Amino acid sequence: MSKIVFWSPEKGTSGCTHVAIAVSSLMGITHKTSSLLIDANSNDRKIASSYTLYDDLLNANSFNDSNLGMNAIMRLIKSNKLSPDIIQNYSKPVLKGRLDILYSAVANTTTEERENLISMPLIAKNADEVYDLVFIDLPKTTTDDSAIRVLSQADIIICVVPQDIEKLNNILKKVNDINDLKDKQKIFVLGNYEAGSKYNVFNVKLKYKLPDPIYVVPHNYVFSDACNDGNVLDFLYKNINAPAKDYNGEFILKTTEIVEEIVKRLKIKE
User: Which of 2, 130, 137, 180 can pair with 152 through a Cys bridge, CB separation 3.0 to 4.6 Å?
Assistant: First the structure.
């Protein structure tokens, strides 16, 4: 039972949430593990609407449902009634027995946002007792102590970075400056990757002397559209056996490489 945190130290266009969705979904499709994907970004709808059409979620009042998602969990924490089994009860199954998602909280103030993030280590700890894997899509920041606490409890940090030299310089400096993360297992991923860029994975690795392995998740508009249309699983199932040279097949292949690296590092056996 392990916690994997997807994180980017800076807000921007790294595609961190898309990486979290793709990796956790492919893990559920290709391996017999029970996983939970937690959306730790208050007021964010990307994860929920990647599995169910956004308009359908709105019509079902899913984001304000007191029996679903982080809102319900936060209510239980305040009444001191949170337990591992309850986490599963308030999550949404998207792949039966393989992947559940925990909708993000609705926060009306920055204070509420901070309370949600402060509670994340406790939520992850409880979830870790009932799921084989707990994936967390963390807010993109290094300035919040609560975010650092979540990262410090992670078994693997998937650090998603863009192909942008200025941002890469800042990000890598920030990562190296956080003492709590120095001994943590990290997987560096170039998100929204463009292989034709001068700053491809080989040149980035050479310039910054990053440790092996470095992975990429290619930019893929079909996958992005599938996330917007609430049918990301259909996209993945449809293309799971696509040739590696195919546009969608390359996306699946590169994302699966990250899945298999997680499996190897955590010594997952089925």
Answer: 180
Number of structural domains (the chain) is 1
SS (H, E, C) 207-257: HHCCCCCEEEEECCHHHHHHHHCCCHHHHHHHHCCCCCCCHHHHHHHHHHH
Tracing tokens 């463009």 back to the chain, one arrives at 194
Instruction: Please choose, from the candidates 180, 178, 115, 191, the residue with its C-alpha nearest in 3D space to the C-alpha of residue 146.
Output: 115
Domain that holds residue 146: 2-266
Residue ranges, the chain, pLDDT below 70:
12-13, 142-143, 270
- The two three-digit tokens of residue 26, written as one number: 């492919």
Contact 202, 215 (CB under 8 A): no
Name the token pair of 212: 């092996």
Dist. CA 260–CA 106, nearest whole Å: 34
CATH number reported for the structural domain that contains residue 109 in this entry: 3.40.50.300
